[in-house]
Amino acid sequence: MAKTxxxxxxxxxxESNSNFPQSLDKRSSFVWGVSTSxxxxxxxxxEEGRGDSIWDVFCRQKDTIKDxxxxxVACDHYHRMQEDVNLIAALKxxxxxxxxxxxxxxxxxxxxxxxKGFEFYSRLINSLIEKGISPHVTLYHWDLPQSLxxxxxxxNRETVNHFVNYxxxxxxxxxxxxxxxxxxxxxxxxxxxxxxxxxxxxxVKSTKTAMQVAHHLLLSHGLALKTLRxxxxxxxxGIVLNQSPxxxxxxxxxxxxxxxxxxxxxxxxxxxxLIKGSYPQxxxxxxxxxxxxxxxxxxxxxxxxxxxxxxxxxxxxxxxATPPTESANTGKEITAMGWEVYPQGLTDLLxxxxxxxxxxxxxxxxxxxxxxxxxxxxxxxxxxxxxxxxRHIAAMQEAISLGVNVRGYxxxxxxxxxxxxxxxxxxxxxxxxxxxxxxxxxxxxxxxxRDFITSNISKAQFIR
Length: 464
Ligand code: FCB
Prior knowledge:
By secondary structure, the chain is α/β, with parallel strands linked by helices. It has one domain (2-321, 331-456): TIM Barrel, CATH 3.20.20.80. Helix content is 38%, strand content 13%. The protein has an 8-stranded parallel β-barrel, surrounded by 6 helices. Helix 14 (383-401) links the parallel strand 9 and strand 10 (406-412). Helix 13 (344-356) packs parallel to helix 14. The longest helix is centred in the middle third of the chain and has 24 residues, at 207-230. Bound molecules: beta-D-fucopyranose.
């Protein structure tokens, strides 16, 4: 797809003094936002007809979640939605990315729709619009209806059709109101952490299954885009990938080979089919019998034009042919997740993708960091998180100045929430959540982000 054909551009406003490229949202030159996902914040897991998702069931299994917690209450966002929208508005954040819980709107993943569930999202979208906040919807942020898992989940090709139906129904109801629709969040995580390492729901441990799942996720993305466009959906449609540039641990031949392999499994396995319509040959060879079954027409279906590509960036990867004896992160600046802070990786990643692929407009849909925040009175001085965000915005800006077409940036996350297998032990929010009282408290990083967004964006220069 040509870089300039972008339906976001229709609505561009002119803010000629900005260092960020002109584009997208109805009112601004560059989208600044904040992200969440349904399972991580909503709670109300048994209310108003919601069905079980694979994460509800995974949490009930022994020793799957670090603090033995679950998503039953989470941030109680289902009941506090208006308060949370008010907070986004008070922080003057113009865009909000959230996901729809498939089992809340279709408890079994097929058949009957749950009107109560749709009403919740309708109220959320209306409240956002009322406050002047653009809603960006993700259809699948990992919470497959358990009833589909019972029939084989994403390994079963039938799930692809169910997803396309679900996508069509959401688009039919909401596409005239929301700013964009993302099909999948991070298919690599769903496939690999969910089905190869088994660290995430549904906890399967099989490379063959994982690769089949990855293929079906991509296929469901492509078929959903095709169907939505046939149904005359006009808003930008895309997918969000988690990506990290991989660097060799040493200059050895073995480490360089491992880099190529890791890069293939994490980046090219998703980018190549989406943009070029084929899987990378070196990875197909490496997988051998574990390569997925691909039916005629699948690759063309996956390679639909993308209105945008979302990238989630947290850290880089280091490829080492022989596992290091000490932690690879020794001596490095790390977050509470143990992830290295490496802003340069974001620049390198964006520049590399731009070199290797014909990219649609890029949005950084998630970037942020977990730290052990301690409230001090009514403030949370999360200096490190603020620094993290500043430095990554600067790294993104550097990529833009090198010619990469980046149009937006979303912080992960609006508020502390259920961090998957880490439970509530990791805080990524720019708003602190006291889980005992559900009291929300904006951290210093939130106040910084507000001031940054509301300042003349050209002042972004100062953070370099
Ligand atoms: C990403 C997920 C998001 C959150 C962050 C920390 O992989 O998309 O839900 O857990 O990591």
